[in-house]
Aldehyde dehydrogenase domain-containing protein
Amino acid sequence: MTLSFDPSTVAVPQGHHIGGRYIALPGEEIAVLRPSDLQLMGTITDGGDAAVQQAVDAAKAALKQSNWGRIVPRERAAILMRFATLIEENATYLGQLEALGSSRLVSGTITGDAVRTAGVVRFYAEYCDKVEGIVTATQADTLSILKHEPYGIVGAIVPWNFPMITAAWKFAPALAAGNAIVMKTSELTPHSLLALAELATQAGVPAGLFNVVNGYGHTTGAAIVRHPDIMMISFTGSTQTGAAIMSLAAQSGIKPVTLELGGKSPQLVLADAGDLSVVAARVSAAFMANAGQVCTAGSRLIVEDTIADELIERIIGITKAIKAGPTWDETTTFAPIISRKQLDRIDGMVRQTIVEGASVITGGAALESRNEGSFYAPTVLENVSDDNIGFKDEFFGPVLTVRTFSDLEEGLQLAAHPVYGLAASIHTTDMKKALKAADTIEAGMIWVNQHGRGPEFTYQAGGYKGSGFGKDMGRAGIEAYLRQKAIWVNYA
Ligand code: NAD
């Protein structure tokens, strides 16, 4: 059976999803374009303060009526399990919607993104009755208990690069922990999250617990951050926006913020990495998957000089073998850039990198199909020094910079970044060197002989330094949505 589909056959959700239903609210209209061909997919309105207020009112009423945070935990789990099953049953529709509106390819959205989204919901459903407190050591006749409690209403803001999955990393643990959520995805990719909220309602998640508002970041996003009844904020996006959100949260009351931000992740390849055709495939996938629009993209190749020429040659071969095309064609292997604006930003940054001394090994321009969509050629750059913009800033596109080294110490120094610390990979068959590198590199996620997360939901995501703090997924992913209460009982 083919996964390819006709884009005109996919129903596009309309409105905000508040209080368990789609509702239209006044606001500036935002046209949502399909990145593959820049045709109109649908329009949303910028909800702003009014939509957020309505969502908060719905969340408050739902928490009161359903007592969600205090029902038998297995009941909460059962509802979320039904939600996961409904996502799986609707995987084709969700996968098509995701492929239509984002840079994700249909070859991966139905069997990958949608199924993984269901998996994330199921993973956290299983946590509902496994959140445990502690009884701490005390003197006689006293009892000291630490227990976890939900916040009440939490807010979440996510970007456009994996719209369903990054959203699920937040709404699933937030709901499993007993909270209501008000969330917003990017104005560039609003539709799949709306469809997920509708499925949650169908599964029996009490109406008003899972609200999705549409709009721009500086209006609707900021309204979520500022709202006094939203008790914590979980954000994924750029480092710059993360800083703005921290500041906004601090100005509008004290509330915790978790930040999953950008990266500039190195791929450190040692001469003993093994079969270079395998390593080249791995390194290429790490900067070309989703056209480099991945927070953990391996955008900096740091390779031992004795194998550099051969490895680069092989990578160039792989960059030539791509098939750029519509996201709804299952034979497409290379994704579009999310918007023309983002494409121009990547291109402008590549030009500036060259002005500052870099040279292009391959790529360095938009692909010819530019008029039908926003495609940028896989690009490899060399001579990118530490003061070059190509080292300092995130491209968030299919761009790889190359540096070489002659011993491990030098390689580790090159792998360091002054701002970012999201992820890093080390490719070597020498586990002593791998572990030394893993110890040395300042990043929240380290991979040995692969680049990118494995399939396990227990593996937590999150960065060091300018790549943020707080974690998604794993046990830490649900603890983020719980606060701790210390109870002291004197029974002398
Ligand atoms: P962005 O920061 O521009 O926007 C992210 C979200 O924040 C969007 O929904 C946007 O509307 C909203 N927003 C923007 N300004 C806001 C404001 N002032 N107040 C409240 N909300 C605001 O990021 P993007 O361009 O959508 O996504 C790409 C970025 O996301 C990259 O930097 C990438 O590395 C990062 N990212 C990080 C992770 C991670 O897990 N660390 C995962 C995916 C993407």
User: Anything to note?
Assistant: Residues 157-161, 166, 184-187, 216-218, 221-222, 225, 236-238, 241, 244-245, 260-263, 295, 394, 396, 422, 461, 463 surround nicotinamide-adenine-dinucleotide (CB under 6 Å).
